[in-house]
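Checklist before submission:
- one chain only
- standard amino acids only
- sequence pasted in full

Submission:
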Amino acid sequence: MRYQFKFRPYQRRFGRSLTTNHGNWDIREGIILRLTDETLRVGWGEIAPISWFGSETLEQALDFCRQLPEEITDEIIFSIPDELPACQFGFESACEWGSGKWGVGSKGDEKNNFLTPNSSLLPYSGLLPAGEAALNQWETLWQQGYRTFKWKIGVDAIAHELEIFESLIHTLPASTKLRLDANGGLTYEEANLWLWTCDNLKANGELPLEIEFIEQPLPVGQFQQMLELSMSYETAIALDESVATLGQLAAYYQQGWRGIFVIKPGIVGSPSRLRKFCHQHQIDTVFSSVFETAIARLAALQLAAELSRNNRAIGFGIDHFFEQEETWLQSLCNDL
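Returned file contents:
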């Protein structure tokens, strides 16, 4: 198949700064793709890299797009190197979109398909702000229907965060599931303390809600220590930054990880190869956002619907970090 190829970079400011162990994130940058096939079907795609998370940089993605001809083929798309995982996802997703397999990509109204609300049978996890702000802002998300929350840790001094945690678990409703996301920001001793605290509270009947897992407690490269921790405590651990790309995911599976894998479709790489791996190994997955627009989110939710197991909430409850995107995104795509 041959496609007419157009692309345009974008910048999108967060409504409020996103604070993680990696620092503050104020502007989301990416690239919108448009592929038009020989039958005039249009497929939309998005490249939304996070270089500090393990993908290519935005500049590397732009360089790749700039060197492509105006007419590209399936062969070009499916030979994008593994060093460009966000590009792999963006281009393959645009092909799938245009194929009509998702029920989008019609010739007449293709620009409007991604502006309708996404529906998913899977529950969503809502992202709470770091620090004490979580104590005041969970209720808004609860009223919107969220029952699973993720809270960033490893951002402040551990003693202070444990105090907030104590307040948070007694503030949230008992039916809540809570995920603690360290973004690789804990030391081995701190990770032990968090895991011990969660286990101890549960053992003593002092944990009023479920701690679903602690996400990426240690930095990438400390896999053996995380494997050891996962076998030492009842509280589960999920790998995130360690398995940012499909190559990393496969490598850690081969090294023995049978716990939870957090998959960020926008930067993991080839959707077709991800499907093959997940079907072959039946891994325990949590699909999660990279703060993409509705274009990449639709593609990511397609994968989550196909590949999620154990009915775990998907990490796409992030709309409250941006202003309404409909007019902005529509205008952006009208220019392509």
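Reviewer check: Residues 2-114+325-334 form a domain with the Enolase-like; domain 1 fold (CATH 3.30.390.10).
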